[in-house]
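Next comes the chain:
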Amino acid sequence: MRHSATRPNDAMLYFGTWKDSTGKEGSEANGPRTSNTQFDACEFRFKGPFVRWFGVKGPDHGCADVYLDGVLQTTVDAFNPTVTFNAMLFEGHDLEDGPLHALRIVVRKERNTKATDSYQTIDNLEAAEPVNYAEEIAKAMRAEYNQIEHGTKPYALPETWSPVPYAAHSPEGGVSLGDGQGCLS
């Protein structure tokens, strides 16, 4: 079995404001990424029977929920009185070898009472076969466009499209705002 480690920017999808050590975000960020914003998430796609998340444990690190294929596996507490880099924070194993898997890490605001903040850091991820999901989707899109261009894939011509009717309509009158003190039941 081949083991492969990947840097976070190679095969991760980030949602929110994950930054690198220089404070850069998005495609400009390089190296380990950190966030302390509740509900920020990152996702790693891979194939193979195992996955490992390596990150930082430290006095300013808090909790994160870890999902594997959409199922909550655990809540990781990354608090430690001293800083430890490349600590294994999660390991999933005995997974089916064939299908594409997804590891999702979601930052929480909960933290150890001794922690000074709720940071989470992605140092490295390890799997038998990391999959750059954004690249795979782009490759599939190019292949599909190529099939359409060469007439080997049927598609609906734009003149055959019919508009989707609106499902919601806003009222034109009879609306009043209250004082905001009541509750709907």
